[in-house]
Amino acid sequence: MKLNKIYSAILLSTLPLTPALAAGLDRSGQSIAAFLQPGNYAEAGISILDPKVQSNQLKVNDMAEDYYFPSAAIKVQATEHISIGLLYDQPFGAESLYPSNNPVFGANGEATQVEVETHNLSALIGYQPTENWNFYAGPVYQTVQGTVSLRGLAYGGASKLGSYDINLKEDEAYGWLAGFAYQIPEIALKTAVTYRSEIKHELDTTETFGFGAIQRPNALTEVITPQSVNIDFQTGIAANTLAFANIRWVHWDQFAVTPKFLNAASGNNLIDYSDDQWSATVGVGRKFNSHWSGSASVGYDSGAGNPVTTLGPTEGYWTVGLGGQYSPAENYFIQAGVKYFWLGDAHAQTGGNIVGEFTDNYALGYGLKIGYRF
Predict the structure, then answer these.
(1) Number of Cβ atoms within 10 Å of the Cβ of 352
(2) Minimal CA–CA distance to 115: which of 45, 184, 66?
(3) CA-CA distance, 59 to 161, in Å (whole number)?
(4) Pick from 330, 301, 312: which is nearest to 18 by CA?
(5) Contact 143, 118 (CB under 8 A)
(6) Quick check: 13 and 371 in contact, CB under 8 A?
(7) What residues have CB less than 8 Å from 220, skipping those under 6 apart?
């Protein structure tokens, strides 16, 4: 079974799109698939996630906020043996808001909430000694910022941490990535292994207690975004049909955010995780005709330990996904996809004490991407 270069190019860009709700703060999955496209290539996409995370025990109907994150990439085959690329994504993040009228997570009309935002810009250079091999590496520029408010009896009420706020000002830092890929284009076989380093940030921090009455500015909080490894594989299995798989490992088990004054007052971290994340996606893509192709996938995420923080009270997930691609011409396409997430039940804790259980959680993810070959 062989595929010509046009078929291969179409199938290599087949869905799944991956709007993520992964372990820890993982979001984008940090794919470099765009850089491994043949020839010159550019894409832009957006993913949207609509989660529902609830606790009947604590009378919380939904604490997870909808969010979206864009991505973009460009890859240029500068010479027969050298390629360069630039990838943008938002690899880590969190967004949640508890109901303010719930005394467990609210007080004085205010609610427990969190917002963490990151941006990544990865520059790559690849060397292809033969048609089959590609060795690549490059620097990664990353920014991180966040705000967290703790309210309610879950944190000991106003006399303890139930009136605490922290503002982590945006910080920029650098890391790196490296990897290799092997391919046989005639049968759409490609495998790639990519390592990303951890990135260390020192964020200017303001902490307040007593609903802002007591301020503790001018501190530094260390945040180290974790190292990770992605393994990607695909191969043609029949005419116009391929199978694909992705395995991802993220080193969460030593991750902790420990603000100076919160730790002094309570002896605890603001956020920490006990286990590494393992996730996998497998699926099948098929080209139906010169204009249409599609895919179906299933996925699994292990979570990063249980009990978990109240700021993200789920443990892993299972997913199913469907996607479609329309190619009006050979050199560009439009993709759309949807995923359903069965989110794992979890016990939420603060300061090592379990507050309650969150169950029957789920999410819907949507994605849209445009790709162009030039």
Answers:
(1) 10
(2) 66
(3) 21
(4) 301
(5) yes
(6) yes
(7) 202, 203, 204, 205, 260
Residue count of the chain: 374
> DSSP secondary-structure letter at 311?
T
- Residue 43, number of CB atoms within 10 A of its CB: 22
- Direct distance between the N- and C-terminal alpha carbons of the chain, in angstroms, rounded to an integer: 28
- What is the C-alpha separation between 62 and 296, in angstroms, rounded? 29
**Contact criterion met (CB below 8 Å) for 347 and 308:** yes
pLDDT score recorded for residue 10: 46
Mean pLDDT of the region 173-177: 98
pLDDT over 80 (residue 15) = no
Closest of 243, 225, 185 to residue 16, by C-alpha = 243
Strand order in the sheet with 353-358: 308-309, 346-350, 353-358
Beta-bridge mates of residue 219:
205
Q: Cα–Cα distance between 346 and 104 in angstroms, integer? A: 17
Average pLDDT, the chain: 90
CA distance 29 to 341: 15
Residue 76 tokens read as 């240029």
At the fourth CATH level, the homologous superfamily of domain 5-373 is Outer membrane protein transport protein (OMPP1/FadL/TodX) (2.40.160.60)
Domain extents in the chain = 5-373
Alpha helices in 153-245, H assignment, sequence order: none
90-146 pLDDT, tens digit each: 999 999 999 999 999 999 999 999 999 999 999 999 999 999 999 999 999 999 999
| pLDDT of 67 | 87
DSSP state of 57: T
CB atoms within 10 A of CB 120: 23
CA-CA distances (angstroms) from residue 3 to 27, 87, 285? 33, 28, 14
SS3 43: strand
CB neighbour burial string for 260-276, b if at least 16 within 10 angstroms, e if fewer: ebbeebbebbbbbbebb
